[in-house]
Design goal:
8 helices, single chain, 72% helix, mainly alpha, globular, 146 residues, AhpD-like
Length: 146
């Protein structure tokens, strides 16, 4: 994966990046399906083809088929999404674009997520927003150009 080989040029940073990324992606309090929804929405908002290429496939394996993914890309007002998905998508949009979440959105999130899950949501959305910026700034090539 080109992201890893790029970050690997800074060994100390890479060695700290791996466990944190692994926890956010594979463990924690948020269901993996929610994690992928957040990551896909961040990738979409940031226009990160690299993130989308990596996570569309992973999201399918975690229960987000192509139809659900299209609704994620359409946004929180998309027909056919659940209240939980709507709250998460609206929170991603505000977090990434506004750098905060409104009281109304926080209340909607709180109806579906525990305090620990909301903290994890912030860490996850922020982490993947950062990855999108790293990928763009360092011009990391796609892993699968076709």
């Amino acid at each position: 994966m080109h992201l890893f080989t790029t970050l690997g040029r800074h060994r100390l940073l890479f060695l700290s990046f791996l466990p944190y990324s692994g926890v956010l992606l594979n463990w924690g309090k948020l269901p993996k399906r929610d994690k992928e929804l957040v990551i896909l929405r961040v990738g979409h908002l940031r226009g990160s083809e690299y993130e989308l290429q990596q996570h569309r496939r992973l999201a399918r394996s975690r229960g987000l088929d192509a139809a659900v993914q299209e609704r994620i890309f359409a946004g929180p007002d998309s027909a056919g999404i659940t209240d939980r998905q709507c709250a998460l998508l609206r929170a991603v949009d505000e977090f990434v674009i506004d750098r905060e979440v409104s009281d109304e959105t926080f209340a909607a999130m709180s109806a579906h997520l525990s305090a620990q899950q909301i903290i994890e949501f912030c860490a996850l959305a922020g982490h993947y927003d950062t990855i999108a910026a790293i990928l763009a700034t360092l011009r990391v090539p796609m892993d699968f150009p076709d």
